Amino acid sequence: MNGPWYWCLIHSEVEPEAGCPNDRRLGPYDTAEEAAEAPARARARTEQMEREDQREREWGKGWDNGDR
């Protein structure tokens, strides 16, 4: 079967274009394998963004206490 393929957030499975509405899935992806990896990629991106946000929140802390 040809793509596009999606990861359904409701059913936690790969589905073809004729699946659930787009607001309930990740994609489109060219292959079913790429769609199956979507949750892991999304998790990794979220973790990276959280680390970057934490670095920004901590940036400059201690400067107002004379810790230069």
UniProtKB/TrEMBL annotation:
Amino acid composition bias (Basic and acidic residues), ranges on this chain: 44-68
UniProt superkingdom: Bacteria
Region described as Disordered: 17-68
Protein name: SPOR domain-containing protein
Organism this protein belongs to: Phytoactinopolyspora alkaliphila
